[in-house]
């Protein structure tokens, strides 16, 4: 049972290609597990700029608010790069995250056994990696004020962004991270730059203050530069990582490569009760867009997260994840996760293989 409304925002570049595969998998999951999905597509990013002049049209945001979950591809592309930051496709993502109050971004980097050889790192380094990056998503350097490009009195200009967090913002992302760690292996590493930044000193103080409420979680701290290094040196030391918005953006792309390709990494963005947003961690990949080369698995796995977190259809989520493992087991690979002896397929063919594995 159950009827759900899903806002589908394909966006730009490979976004449209991978979302088709993702939606087909969600439809298959609904058929098999007997619930109803109603998909409504809306423009976002460059596509929305071209159609309406705005990267995030008000109607798109309203439609998302009225949905049970939002399923997004990716936005951006070179044709919109010269626009001022307010008018750029990327602004739509920030507007959507802020507009829906999605302060917690979960980015699980788990290496599937079938892909150990596809990683750029040695198999003995990446084997067994299972990390959850909890990225704060509506504060920090992306949103702090003052921000802008300002004229200087003595001539020239100054570009400004501000990394700022309130105790309230740190506490609520901290709680999400402690809870997540509790449901995993009970280890939480808070990543900051407290040796230099006051904002990080407050971050650390507030996180430390929460720890007594989670005695079953082992809390550690790490500076962000060291974390970037440790992630490739010995990634298995990490379980759950919690960090500031931009630190999390950078570290999660790095963590993605542990799993073989950024084309494998899904994400869930959650707030307090409203619809969640599900999108791959990667971007619109203009270098391969329109060539049927994109890896749709991050999108499909984001669909599994949607089923689990927003629709509470955990069996369906597991079945989708299992289909992903099955196609990899069968040796099907897009170019980014190619392996010797594999069947290299395009985005669409990968989608067909997934459906066959799911229904077979
Ligand atoms: P990107 O993630 O789009 O691409 C980086 C590299 O990874 C490229 O070589 C690309 O071909 C490859 N890649 C990414 N996803 C892939 C997939 N599914 N299958 C195979 N290969 C894949 O990052 P970028 O090149 O820095 O940015 C391109 C555009 O995307 C920019 O406009 C950027 O602002 C935007 N962007 C959007 C999002 C988002 O919508 N969430 C995220 C990151 C970047
Ligand atoms: C991501 C992207 C976005 C971010 C950009 C495109 C705004 O890189 O989702 O990781 O920095 O959050
Ligand atoms: Mn990013």
From TrEMBL:
<feature type="site" description="Important for catalysis">
    <location>
        <position position="142"/>
    </location>
</feature>
<feature type="binding site">
    <location>
        <position position="107"/>
    </location>
    <ligand>
        <name>substrate</name>
    </ligand>
</feature>
<feature type="binding site">
    <location>
        <position position="225"/>
    </location>
    <ligand>
        <name>substrate</name>
    </ligand>
</feature>
<comment type="pathway">
    <text>Amino-acid biosynthesis; L-leucine biosynthesis; L-leucine from 3-methyl-2-oxobutanoate: step 3/4.</text>
</comment>
<keyword id="KW-0479">Metal-binding</keyword>
<protein>
    <recommendedName>
        <fullName>3-isopropylmalate dehydrogenase</fullName>
        <ecNumber>1.1.1.85</ecNumber>
    </recommendedName>
</protein>
<keyword id="KW-0432">Leucine biosynthesis</keyword>
<feature type="binding site">
    <location>
        <begin position="283"/>
        <end position="295"/>
    </location>
    <ligand>
        <name>NAD(+)</name>
    </ligand>
</feature>
<keyword id="KW-0464">Manganese</keyword>
<keyword id="KW-0028">Amino-acid biosynthesis</keyword>
<feature type="binding site">
    <location>
        <position position="249"/>
    </location>
    <ligand>
        <name>Mg(2+)</name>
    </ligand>
</feature>
<feature type="binding site">
    <location>
        <position position="253"/>
    </location>
    <ligand>
        <name>Mg(2+)</name>
    </ligand>
</feature>
<keyword id="KW-0460">Magnesium</keyword>
<comment type="subunit">
    <text>Homodimer.</text>
</comment>
<dbReference type="InterPro" id="IPR019818">
    <property type="entry name" value="IsoCit/isopropylmalate_DH_CS"/>
</dbReference>
<feature type="binding site">
    <location>
        <position position="135"/>
    </location>
    <ligand>
        <name>substrate</name>
    </ligand>
</feature>
<feature type="domain" description="Isopropylmalate dehydrogenase-like">
    <location>
        <begin position="5"/>
        <end position="354"/>
    </location>
</feature>
<dbReference type="Pfam" id="PF00180">
    <property type="entry name" value="Iso_dh"/>
</dbReference>
<dbReference type="InterPro" id="IPR024084">
    <property type="entry name" value="IsoPropMal-DH-like_dom"/>
</dbReference>
<dbReference type="GO" id="GO:0003862">
    <property type="term" value="F:3-isopropylmalate dehydrogenase activity"/>
</dbReference>
<feature type="site" description="Important for catalysis">
    <location>
        <position position="193"/>
    </location>
</feature>
<comment type="similarity">
    <text>Belongs to the isocitrate and isopropylmalate dehydrogenases family. LeuB type 1 subfamily.</text>
</comment>
<keyword id="KW-0520">NAD</keyword>
<keyword id="KW-0963">Cytoplasm</keyword>
<dbReference type="InterPro" id="IPR004429">
    <property type="entry name" value="Isopropylmalate_DH"/>
</dbReference>
<feature type="binding site">
    <location>
        <begin position="77"/>
        <end position="90"/>
    </location>
    <ligand>
        <name>NAD(+)</name>
    </ligand>
</feature>
<keyword id="KW-0560">Oxidoreductase</keyword>
<keyword id="KW-0100">Branched-chain amino acid biosynthesis</keyword>
<feature type="binding site">
    <location>
        <position position="97"/>
    </location>
    <ligand>
        <name>substrate</name>
    </ligand>
</feature>
<comment type="function">
    <text>Catalyzes the oxidation of 3-carboxy-2-hydroxy-4-methylpentanoate (3-isopropylmalate) to 3-carboxy-4-methyl-2-oxopentanoate. The product decarboxylates to 4-methyl-2 oxopentanoate.</text>
</comment>
<feature type="binding site">
    <location>
        <position position="225"/>
    </location>
    <ligand>
        <name>Mg(2+)</name>
    </ligand>
</feature>
């Amino acid at each position: 049972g159950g009827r759900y409304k899903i806002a589908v925002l394909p966006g730009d570049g490979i976004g449209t290609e991978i979302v088709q595969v993702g939606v087909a998998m969600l439809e298959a999951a609904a058929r098999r597990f007997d619930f109803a999905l109603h998909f409504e597509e809306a423009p976002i990013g460059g596509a929305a700029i071209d159609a309406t002049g705005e990267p995030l049209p008000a109607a798109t945001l309203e439609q998302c608010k009225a949905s049970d979950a939002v399923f997004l591809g990716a936005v951006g592309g070179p044709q919109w790069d010269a626009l001022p930051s307010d008018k750029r496709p990327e602004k739509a993502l920030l507007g959507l995250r802020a507009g829906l109050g999605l302060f917690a971004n979960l980015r699980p980097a788990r290496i599937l056994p079938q892909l150990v050889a596809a990683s750029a790192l040695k198999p003995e380094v990446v084997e067994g990696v299972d990390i959850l990056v909890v990225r704060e998503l509506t504060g920090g350097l992306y949103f702090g004020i003052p921000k802008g490009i300002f004229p200087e009195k003595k001539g020239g200009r100054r570009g400004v962004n501000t990394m700022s967090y309130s105790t309230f913002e740190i506490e609520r992302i901290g709680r999400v991270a402690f809870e997540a760690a509790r449901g995993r292996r009970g280890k939480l590493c808070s990543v900051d730059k407290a040796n230099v930044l006051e904002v990080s000193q407050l971050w650390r103080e507030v996180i430390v203050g929460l720890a007594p409420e989670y005695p079953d979680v082992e809390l550690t701290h790490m500076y962000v530069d060291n974390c970037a290094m440790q992630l490739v040196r010995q990634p298995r030391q990490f379980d759950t990582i919690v960090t500031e918005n931009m630190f999390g953006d950078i570290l999660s792309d790095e963590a993605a490569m542990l799993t073989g390709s950024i084309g494998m990494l899904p994400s869930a963005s959650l707030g307090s009760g409203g619809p969640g947003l599900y999108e791959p961690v990667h971007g619109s990949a203009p270098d391969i867009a329109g060539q049927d080369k994109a890896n749709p698995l991050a999108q499909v796995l984001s669909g599994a997260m949607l089923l689990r977190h927003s629709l509470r259809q955990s069996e369906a989520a597991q079945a989708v994840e299992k289909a992903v493992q099955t196609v990899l087991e069968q040796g099907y690979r897009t170019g980014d996760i190619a392996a010797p002896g594999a069947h290299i397929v395009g985005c669409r063919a990968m989608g067909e293989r997934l459906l066959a594995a799911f229904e077979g």
